[in-house]
UniProtKB/TrEMBL annotation:
<keyword id="KW-0798">TonB box</keyword>
<dbReference type="GO" id="GO:0009279">
    <property type="term" value="C:cell outer membrane"/>
</dbReference>
<feature type="domain" description="TonB-dependent receptor-like beta-barrel">
    <location>
        <begin position="265"/>
        <end position="682"/>
    </location>
</feature>
<keyword id="KW-0812">Transmembrane</keyword>
<keyword id="KW-0998">Cell outer membrane</keyword>
<keyword id="KW-0675">Receptor</keyword>
<dbReference type="InterPro" id="IPR037066">
    <property type="entry name" value="Plug_dom_sf"/>
</dbReference>
<dbReference type="InterPro" id="IPR036942">
    <property type="entry name" value="Beta-barrel_TonB_sf"/>
</dbReference>
<dbReference type="InterPro" id="IPR012910">
    <property type="entry name" value="Plug_dom"/>
</dbReference>
<comment type="similarity">
    <text>Belongs to the TonB-dependent receptor family.</text>
</comment>
<dbReference type="InterPro" id="IPR039426">
    <property type="entry name" value="TonB-dep_rcpt-like"/>
</dbReference>
<dbReference type="GO" id="GO:0015344">
    <property type="term" value="F:siderophore uptake transmembrane transporter activity"/>
</dbReference>
<feature type="domain" description="TonB-dependent receptor plug">
    <location>
        <begin position="47"/>
        <end position="138"/>
    </location>
</feature>
<dbReference type="Pfam" id="PF07715">
    <property type="entry name" value="Plug"/>
</dbReference>
<protein>
    <submittedName>
        <fullName>TonB-dependent receptor</fullName>
    </submittedName>
</protein>
<keyword id="KW-0813">Transport</keyword>
<dbReference type="GO" id="GO:0044718">
    <property type="term" value="P:siderophore transmembrane transport"/>
</dbReference>
């Protein structure tokens, strides 16, 4: 058995091969001949040049999720906060979200994509030169379905229920090839209807001259729908040239309400507003790529991407059941990216690549807010503001196969980032340069085996998002009048045009052990040293938009920080993972993770001075069981994060409560063409929340409890 596994490993593509490139399967480039079975997700992971997790169609479909965010939150080392995924417990800004290798637009959420459109999900823990190094914690790459080699047609119909009424979702795929021309049309649409309970507690310790308390209960219904399409056209001009066009079209409409049902407050100013909220998000993206090969050992890829994202919202708040505050706004992001990559084989061991990227992004921001029918900030709210980022990047990388056991990857990437943002006093410009040396080493203890030891030394960064550069203030809804003085825990928000990128030096070590039949065990260690850390800081200011001093929260480069962690992962047949305890005939697969994290912010020399949102530890455990005599598979996944405290600044702290998620599924395969799936996400809901407190004793606690979601779906391959 062991010998057979070694032979299959030897026949796979060499470590470091790019599974998306035609050259990865070409014996001219790697001097090997690839035979046997297709590459599995585990094979692709083992052969990656850096530590990477590959999630294929089987895992994506497992629980019958209606959006990609639900899939991602179960993946090793990933947790969700404020709707955004985070790697290694580091904030969402440290985790780069990619769509087909390109940065996702501002305002994009993974919950806006139907899993049926996704070919695979790649989680990469360290940066490489040929992708943007805006990945301090790592990258999550959503690879959309590509043109198939033969005709495909399928449809998936589903019904979900959480609260109120059942909701429907549908996805369809048609792919065809005619000679040298092939095309694919994945389309999906879904709707949702859910609800959450809320508890809000406020305590203001005399910052306004009096001590005030408020206790409120609320219901928060949420509903909406989304439609997505990612058509693709591929033209194989000849044996050495091809042109690929792919569009990504998306529209999401969302609605939510917050209705406070029970209020007890010592001061009416401490009330939260009941509100109606709605909006839409649109994303249009077109990517064209031309690939040409020269003499079998050289390749050139040229790519052009044009995109536009639109985010609109309308908010109406109420006090004493009467209209109070009305806010409408629109943000429009436009992107143009041109890139190129040239690769050449040098001798038998070196694969040299060089490339460039030019990116131009612009954000136009408009907003208007009225309170009791009067404009909140005359001359300020209706003024359109703009921000833009121009980015230039050049890189060089070399993949060097030293021997059957050693692979060395060296890369150098230089990026120039120029930002320009409007302010009410004129425009502010910034220019930063980031030099990113990158080194990855892979070692196979047994040249005929599958185990891999990896080491990486990288330089990465986090650029300010365009929204945080726009200085337009957002007045806190509890104190919406510029004649009112607010408190620390109800601060206004404003951007900072002078933000600089955060720079991070990273070290990663990992050992990956692969078992017969696709099982694996891995242990990874990482360390990040972050310079120019950005954090929101709340201060009392004399501001131009108010007649009294206001507490304002602004992003600032405040300090340096360290973050370290250990990540354990296992998955595979239970008989392999627990030999002697589980019979080899038992069709039971297990999976689990345990992650330990520590961080320290230099400017906050106090206990719990950690990075925002980085939990001390987290764990997941799941199983899949295939019945012996019927085509039934059942499974579950449990994740847990403990409660923890974060000292954000010298005067402000955050306490996060524990969180737990239990998901269940059952799959019945009628035949090779038809399957029926049942799922339950958040099957054991609990209250989760956060408490923000300040050094004067003031605090705000917000707790939420969402309802379970049940799904039934039928998948038909035509």
């Amino acid at each position: 058995m062991a010998l057979a596994w070694q032979v299959s490993c030897a026949q796979d593509m060499p470590v470091g091969a790019d599974p998306n490139s035609r050259s990865a399967y070409d014996n001219k480039l790697y001097r090997v001949e690839v035979k046997g079975r297709p590459q599995s997700d585990v094979d692709l992971r083992r052969n990656a040049v850096v530590a990477k997790q590959i999630v294929g169609r089987e895992e994506i479909d497992r629980f019958g999720d209606s959006n990609v965010n639900e899939v991602v939150r179960r993946l090793p080392g990933v947790d969700i906060q404020n709707g955004q995924p985070r790697l290694r417990g580091m904030g969402s800004g440290y985790t780069q979200i990619l769509i087909n290798g390109e940065p996702a637009p501002s305002g994009f959420l993974l919950e806006q994509i139907n899993p049926a459109q996704v070919e695979r999900i790649e989680i990469q823990k360290a940066a490489t030169a040929d992708q943007s190094t805006q990945a301090v914690a790592g990258s999550i790459n959503i690879v959309l379905k590509t043109v198939a080699k033969k005709r495909q047609a399928s449809v998936k119909l589903g019904v979900a229920y959480s609260t109120g009424r059942p909701t429907a979702n549908v996805s369809a795929l048609y792919s065809e090839r005619a000679g040298d021309l092939s095309y694919s049309l994945p389309v999906s649409a879904y709707e949702y209807d859910s609800s959450a309970e809320m508890k809000v507690s406020r305590y203001v310790a005399g910052s306004l001259g009096t001590v005030g308390t408020a206790q409120q209960l609320a219901q928060q219904p949420m509903w909406g729908h989304s439609i997505n399409a990612s058509p693709q056209l591929n033209w194989r001009i000849d044996d050495d040239q091809s042109i690929n066009l792919q569009a990504f079209l998306q529209r999401s409409d969302w609605h939510s309400k917050v209705q406070f049902t029970d209020i007890a407050a010592s001061n009416p100013l401490l009330f939260e507003d009941s509100s109606n909220n709605e909006g839409r998000f649109e994303n249009h993206r077109l990517t064209g790529q031309w690939s040409v090969r020269f003499s079998g050992e050289r390749k050139l890829d040229l790519k052009l991407m044009m995109g536009q994202a639109l985010n609109e919202f309308v908010n109406q708040s109420y006090r004493a059941n009467l209209p109070y505050r009305h806010s409408v706004g629109e943000g429009r992001d436009r992107t143009l990216t041109q890139s190129g990559k040239y690769g050449q084989l040098l001798g038998d061991a070196h694969r040299l690549s060089a490339g460039w990227e030019f990116e131009f992004r612009r954000r136009d921001d408009e907003r208007n807010v009225t309170v009791l029918g009067l404009q909140q900030l005359p001359g300020m709210d209706t003024l359109p503001l703009h921000a833009k980022i121009d980015r230039q990047a050049y890189y060089l990388q070399d993949e060097w196969e030293l021997s059957d056991q050693w692979l060395l990857y060296g890369g150098l990437r230089h990026e120039t980032i120029a930002t320009r943002s409007d302010t009410f006093d004129g425009a502010v410009s910034n220019r930063s340069q980031v030099m990113s040396p990158l080194l990855h080493v892979n070692f196979k203890p047994d040249p005929k085996g599958c185990d891999v030891i990896r080491g990486s030394l990288t330089r990465s960064y986090k650029a300010p998002d365009l929204y945080s550069l726009v200085p337009r203030p957002t007045l806190n809804s509890i104190y919406p009048l510029p004649t009112q003085q607010n408190d620390q825990v109800a601060a206004d928000r404003a951007g900072n045009p002078g933000l600089r990128p955060e720079l991070a030096t990273g070290l990663d070590l990992a050992y990956e052990m692969y078992f017969t039949g696709g099982g694996l065990f891995s242990v990874g260690l990482f360390h990040r040293r972050v310079e120019d850390l950005i954090r929101y800081v709340t201060t009392l200011e004399n501001v131009s938009w108010a007649t009294v001093p206001r507490w304002v929260s602004r992003p600032q480069n405040i300090s340096s920080a360290n973050s370290s962690g250990i990540e354990l992962e296992f998955k595979g047949p239970a008989s392999q993972l627990l030999p002697g305890l589980v019979d080899a005939k038992t069709r039971l697969d297990l999976r689990g993770t345990l992650n330990l994290y520590r961080s320290k912010v230099d400017a906050v020399p106090m206990p719990n001075s950690r990075l925002d949102g980085q939990q001390p530890w987290s764990a997941t455990l799941g199983f899949d069981y295939k019945a012996q005599h019927v085509p039934l598979t059942v499974g579950a996944n449990l994740s847990y994060t403990p409660g923890y405290d974060t000292q954000q600044t010298l005067s402000q702290a955050l306490k996060q409560t524990r969180s737990r998620a239990l998901d269940l599924y059952a799959l019945w395969n009628w035949n090779q063409q038809v399957s029926l799936r049942f799922g339950a996400t958040n099957a054991a809901p609990q209250w989760t929340g956060r408490i923000t407190s300040t050094d004067d004793g003031s605090s705000v606690q917000v707790q939420r409890k969402t309802r379970p979601n049940y799904t039934v779906a039928i998948d038909i391959k035509l």
